[in-house]
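Margin note: ligand = flavin-adenine dinucleotide.
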Amino acid sequence: MTSYDVVILGAGPAGMAVAAELAGHVRVLVIERGELARTHATWYSYADRVRDHGLDDAVAFRTDHVLFRSPNYAHEMKDDCVVVDHRRVLETWLGRARAGGVEFVQASYQSHRSDTRGVVVRTSLGDFRARLIIDCTGPNSPIVRAENLILRKDAWVLRGARVRLPAGRYEPHIAYYPLNDDANTYVGTHPFSATELNVYVFQGQYDTLGDPATLQALFDKTLATEFPGAEIVEPLGGTIVSGVLKRYALRRVLFFGAAGMMNPEAIGMGFNEVLRQVRSFAKGVRGALASDRLDARSLERVAMSVRDRETMYFQRIIGVFSLHFIRSEAKWDGGVRWLNLLGEDSRFWMRNELSLEWIRRATLKLHRAVPLHEAVKLIPVGDFAFVGGQLARFAALTIARLAREWLAGIVRRSDKAG
Ligand SMILES: Cc1cc2nc3c(=O)[nH]c(=O)nc-3n(C[C@H](O)[C@H](O)[C@H](O)COP(=O)(O)OP(=O)(O)OC[C@H]3O[C@@H](n4cnc5c(N)ncnc54)[C@H](O)[C@@H]3O)c2cc1C
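Resulting structure:
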C-alpha cells in the first residue's frame, strides 16, 4: 500500500491551497471525488490577499467598493476588491502542487482507521496509508458527520449562474441586496468581465446544511425580472456553512476550510479565509509532522493557532444578529445601518481582520443600530445566553479600559504636580 505523510481529502479551495503550500516539503496525496479544478462557487476577494498568494493572473474584475442595500439604507464599503476566476485559481494551485510532487487521485473517501503506524484511508479506489489526514471535504464532511462534531450551524444557501448580458445594460458592482419577498431572499452580484456577471439568489438558514436546489425556480424568476435578456453561461451555487464544532481536530485528523467551520458567521467568505489562514496552517502542519505530535490535543492547537477566539466570538454575535436582521420585517435594515455606523471600519468586518479595539467600537455601534427591545424579541432562545454573556463581557472590558485610562490620567497629573 502506498504511504504518504499527508492525505488531503477534497480539492476545493481549502484542499488545493494546503496541497500547494505543503508541496515540496512532505509527501502528499489529494483524494478528490469530482473533476479537479472545478467548483460552482464565485469568489470576491481583496487585491492585497490575491497578490500575496501570486494569484494576480486569476483576477477577472477590480473595483474599489462593495454595495450593501436594504429597503431603507445603502452602504458603500470601500476596499480594493477583486472577483477572481475560480477555475484559474484552482488550476494555479494544482500546477504548484504537481510541480512540488503532490499526487492526485479521483476517488471518494469512505472511512479511515488508525493503527500504530498511522492511519489507513479507505476510498472507492482502494486503501492509502498516511501519517495525517487533512479533511477539506467542505460543508458535508463525512468525518464531521460520523463523529457528530457539529455543535451549532447555520448556512447561506445559494443558487445562480454566470450570465452574459447585453452590453451597456448593467453597471458592474459587487453587490448584495434583498428581494423583499416573504422568504427573505437576497441577490448577490459579482461582475466577471465587461459582459459577464456571476449572479445568484441566497437565503440565510438556521440549524441546517441547506439545499441549494430548492432555490432554482426562484433564481430563474429573479434572473428574468432583474436581468432581462441574460443568457446562462454556467451554473453556480452551493452552501456556505458556518458554526461551531465540538473539536477542530481528532487523533491524526485535522479539518481545514468549510469542513472545519472556518467561514466567518454571517459573512461566509470561505475562499478569503483560506487565503488568510493557509500559510500559518501549513506551517503548523509541517511542525506537527516534524515533531510527530499527531495526537488530538496537539492537532487541536494547530487548528486553533489560525483562529482568534475574540474574533470568533464576535463574528458569532454578528451571526446571531444577522439571523435577526434576516428574519425581521425590516429585511436587513438593521445590518446596513450598523455598517453605516461603522463607516470606513466596515471593511475590517468583511475581511475578518478584527482587533479588540475594533470589536469594542463595533459592539457599541451594534447597540445603536439595533435597539435592545427589538433584539430581545428576535435572537433565537438557544443563543440568548451566549450573546448576553458576550455583550456583558465587552461592556466590562470597556469599563475596565476607561477606568485604566482614568487612573493613568490621575498618575500623569500627580507626576506633573510632583
Ligand atoms: C455561489 C457562491 C458564492 C460564494 N462567494 C464567496 C466569496 O465571494 N468570497 C469567499 O471568500 N467565499 C465565497 N463563497 C464560499 C466559498 O466558495 C466556500 O467557503 C469554499 O468553497 C469552501 O471551500 P472548501 O474547499 O472548504 O470546500 P468546498 O469548496 O466545498 O470543496 C470540498 C471538496 O471536497 C470534495 N469532496 C467532498 N466529499 C468528498 C469525499 N467523500 N471524497 C472526496 N472528495 C470529497 C468536493 O468534491 C469538493 O471538491 C461562495 C460560495 C458559493 C457557493
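The radius of gyration is 23 Å.
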